[in-house]
Amino acid sequence: SGSTHSRSAMDATEQTPLLQGTTASIGSMTPGWRPAMMKQGTGVMKATSKLKMMARKSQKKREGRSAWPWYNFLNSMLRPHSHRWQAKTFRSIITALILLDMVAFIFESDKDIAHRHHRIFSILEAISSVVFMLEYLLRLYFAPERVRFKKGIGPWGARGKFIISFDSVIDLFSFLPWLLEVVFVLDLPNLSVLRVTRLFRLLKAAPVMGSFDVVARVLYYNAEILCVAFLICGVMILTMATLLYYVRPDDNKDFSSILATVYLAVMMLTGQ
């Protein structure tokens, strides 16, 4: 039976022109047909990848993005949650500058230290302010790459949205005092309010912002418990203030009303 099946298969092959042509074409191929086919496939793949690259460049151009080689490097460096080495190095440099600025800000409040090391403080302030200003300009340029700014708007709309964001305000105030002092030649010691804005640099540090995120998550997930705790505290303070008012000694201005005894109730309940 096996020989019968094999003969019928051979007869079917001989009677089918398509299979005969395929068999003949395979048999007529030269021994070097495989390398030739592989070489042709490689050429097609290279052409396809080149077309895809050209399409990506044209898309970036339409979206207002650059196609120069350092674009992806700088874009990755500025991302706050990137784990690439350039992003980690950049965040470490910014954090180190912020800590140095805060130490200098504290020591500069002493007149003797500020007078003796005025040049060092000025150089450190200039370097850090220039770095923060360049960072601000880069973040403004790469704003269309961030999802929170580019939703439904063009590249310039994304940049405008970044300018009015909280992150932009922090970055702006980090170098604004130095810029006013250098460009507009203002004596900032007489404008102490503007010098206080240097404290905004603390908000640029990744550990500080991470701490605020932790506090925000705690408040969000424990909002009900915290509300109950504040409610109990309020009831206890009101009860104690009312008791102090009604058992007050005569002619004592500290117990003139329940509003006046609230302060005393808080002091008593906190052990002061």
Describe what you observe in this structure.
It is a single chain. This protein is mostly helical and 272 residues long. α4 packs across α5 (85-107) and α13 crosses α14 (258-269). Residues 1-27 have low confidence and may be disordered. It has helices at 2-15, 17-28, 33-62, 71-78, 85-107, 111-116, 118-141, 147-150, 155-163, 166-183, 192-196, 206-221, 223-246, 258-269. The N and C termini lie far apart (107 Å). The longest helix is centred in the first third of the chain and has 30 residues, at 33-62. It is built from 14 helices and no strands.
So how many helices?
14
Mean pLDDT: 76
What percentage of residues falls in helices of 4 or more residues? over 70%
Radius of gyration (CA) equals 37 Å
Strand content bin: under 5%
Helix-strand makeup class? mainly alpha
Distance between the termini: 107 Å
SSE layout and pairings?
Layout: H1 2-15, H2 17-28, H3 33-62, H4 71-78, H5 85-107, H6 111-116, H7 118-141, H8 147-150, H9 155-163, H10 166-183, H11 192-196, H12 206-221, H13 223-246, H14 258-269
Helix pairs in contact: 4-5, 5-7, 7-10, 13-14
Notable characteristics:
about 270 residues, mainly alpha, extended
Describe the structure concisely for a colleague.
The chain is 75% helix and 0% strand.
